[in-house]
Write a structure and sequence with these properties.
With 625 residues, the protein is mostly beta strands. Among the domains are: 243 residues, 6 Propeller (Neuraminidase), CATH 2.120.10; 107 residues, Immunoglobulins (Immunoglobulin-like); 83 residues. Helix content is 3%, strand content 38%.
Length: 625
């Protein structure tokens, strides 16, 4: 949804309010801006290379944001030809090829082929323009396109379903509003006038409609008198059809499409007073109904429908607010940083679910880009590593983190904290690679390496965009003594050696002397091993495993993509002693199998999880093997 932020004269209480904002901001202008981060709320992002206001901003197909033209914030306050591109992942701006013509208060429309059509606006001399040009983001080049039939500024440009662009209203050489409109065909590079609108519209709002055509609402019909007129462009008939008017005349306001298809008008101006009113339009019935009032009047303001369907409203100061679908009142959202001074700014929903606000006022040297990260919730089960031999390390245990909220999950870093942090380490994760959509999961790999025996506990912390600023997951494990083997048995005795030979007999008459001793016989062969000893007595049976289960309500994706309520049950099974080999584990409850898993060799604990329609009732039993 393209929502224009345009300049207009400031008068009365509104001007005084902006003056107070400027003074407060100036006092803090020298503070270093915080880098864009995962934490929920507003933060200063990298500043544009050129300070500008009354520019145009367009989200490109690759998710980058293209900013074009605008007005310089220093004397002589010329309109600009410069353009630059913002990369949300790198939080950086890169200058791109300049436009062929300087312009401010123009429109920039993303075409169906990924190029951007820039049309009209005011040049440095203050003359309204009919010129148009097209930017090719792949080639980084501008090409002159056919001029409009009339000069325009403060107009709207809406991409129709058939790929053409409807330009409506605005003003020409004077401040008088126009009732003319024309359609651009990119294939033919040609403009075709439509029938005139039923009323005059300048600084109005326009929204494309499914099936073709667009709705135009409000705006000034004179210099600064707002109208409540609404009309629809029928693309097939090339005609304008009057619709039911809004209850409140309003100009210079955002008109957004809600998640349920209704249109939502937020704030606006009917000089000299801004309004805090809102109203919704049901396209099917053609009726407007009052919506919840803003916390303060807002004009030249911004409104963005977030991924969750919430509406984020900004403008007329640093306060921002949120309206959830079905809510009866707006809720407070984090305020913009004190270094902000948005005026004639652009507010866009980025492809990753964050909101970028660009542009500043010329009242102080302030930051010129801010980014809003919506708040969400996340959940992960505790991780128990069981027993691990001291001095050794466990296998990697992957902690599954689920985005249980309504907005994307942005994670900045995963770390280990707590008194036992030295025994645990993060060895890999997928949570910081990209935003995690609602209902989806990412994983953090953790290893346990106890240096000594005993229990160890720590916390896995994931810095993210939850209300608390981080998700915490309990980590537990125990270091145990590694076992040693028994000594080997002695070998059998060898056989006796052979006897020595007898000496020679002496001659008769005299006693014969003893013969010399014969040589020692060779060592006999090794005897056979003795028979096996009798079997020892059977050991006593181990104690029964301990089972601790807990259940909590969650919402999961059901058939047709609908979110349904289920019960997640987590059971920790602890054996009396560590197993010698891996074994299957099965949990049963009420005659049904609740969960299955395996316990690794050398471990004595395992955690099993299951999601079911109801929580277990009665005792949960465990079967091993």
């Amino acid at each position: 949804m393209t929502v224009r932020r345009t300049m207009r004269r400031a008068g009365g209480a509104t001007a005084r309010a902006w003056g107070a904002v400027a003074l407060a901001a100036l006092a803090l202008a020298l503070l270093a801006p915080a880098a864009a981060q995962a934490a929920a709320g507003w933060a200063s992002a990298a500043s544009m290379n050129v300070d500008r206001k009354a520019h145009a901003a367009t989200v490109l197909p690759d998710g980058d944001l293209l900013v074009t033209g605008g007005q310089a914030l220093e004397f002589p306050w010329d309109s600009l030809t410069s353009a630059e591109r913002y990369d949300p992942a790198a939080d950086g701006w890169t200058p791109v090829a300049p436009m062929g013509h300087d312009r401010l208060s123009h429109t920039a429309t993303l075409l169906a082929d990924g190029r951007v059509l820039v049309a009209g606006g005011l040049d440095t001399a203050g003359d309204a323009l009919a010129t148009t040009e097209i930017y090719d983001p792949v080639a980084d080049a501008w090409t002159a396109a056919a001029p409009m039939g009339e000069v325009r500024r403060g107009h709207t440009a809406t991409l129709l379903d058939d790929g053409r662009v409807l330009v409506a209203g605005g003003s020409g050489a004077s401040t008088s509003a126009l009732e003319s409109a024309e359609v651009y065909d990119p294939d033919a590079d040609a403009w075709t006038p439509t029938q005139p609108m039923n009323g005059r519209h300048r600084l109005h709002a326009a929204v494309a409609q499914p099936g073709g055509g667009a709705i135009v609402a409000g705006g000034y019909f004179t210099a600064f008198d707002a109208t409540n007129g609404v009309e629809r462009y029928d693309a097939d008939a090339n005609a304008w059809i009057p619709l039911a008017p809004m209850a409140v005349a309003r100009a210079d306001f955002p008109l957004v499409t809600l998640a349920d298809g209704r249109l939502f008008a937020v704030g606006g101006d009917d000089d000299p007073d801004a309004t805090e009113t809102t109203e919704r339009h049901d396209v099917a019935t053609g009726k407007w109904t009052a919506g919840p009032s803003l916390s303060q009047p807002r004009w030249s303001n911004g409104a963005t429908v977030l991924t969750s369907g919430d509406v984020l409203a900004t403008g007329s100061g640093l306060t921002t607010e949120l309206l959830s679908p079905g809510a009866a009142a707006w809720g407070a959202a984090p305020p913009l940083p004190a270094t902000a001074g948005p005026m004639s700014y652009e507010q866009r929903l980025l492809a990753d679910g964050r909101v970028l606000l660009s542009g500043s006022c010329d009242c102080a040297p302030l930051a010129n880009t801010w980014i809003y990260t919506p708040e969400t919730t996340a959940d992960a089960a505790p991780a128990d590593f069981g027993d691990v031999y001291a001095g050794r390390r466990s296998a990697v245990l992957w902690v599954t983190v689920e985005n249980t909220g309504r907005e994307p999950l942005f994670a900045e870093a995963a770390s280990i904290a707590g008194s036992g942090a030295a025994a645990f380490a993060v060895v890999g994760e997928t949570c910081t690679d990209a935003p995690v959509a609602p209902g989806r999961r990412c994983r953090v790999g953790v290893r346990f390496a106890p240096a000594a025996t005993g229990a160890h506990a720590a916390t896995l912390e994931l810095a993210d965009n939850e209300a608390a600023g981080r998700l915490t997951v309990a980590l537990d494990g125990a270091g145990v003594v590694a076992p040693t083997g028994p000594p080997g048995s002695d070998g059998a005795d060898g056989a006796d050696g052979a006897d020595g030979r007898d000496g020679v007999a002496g001659r008769d008459g005299a006693p014969g002397s003893d013969g010399a001793a014969g040589p020692t016989g060779a060592t006999g062969p090794v005897g056979p091993a003795g028979p096996a000893g009798p079997a020892g007595p059977a050991g006593s049976a181990g104690a029964s495993p301990k089972i601790a289960c807990s259940s909590k309500l969650v919402r999961v994706k059901g058939r047709g993509g609908r979110r349904v309520q289920r019960v997640r049950t987590t059971c920790k099974v602890t054996l009396a002693r560590a197993t010698r080999r891996a074994a299957a584990v099965k949990l049963r409850n009420g005659g049904r199998t609740l969960a299955r898993g395996r316990i690794a060799a050398g471990r004595r604990a395992v955690t099993l999880r299951t999601v079911s329609a109801r929580a277990p009732r009665g005792a949960v039993t465990v079967t091993l093997g």
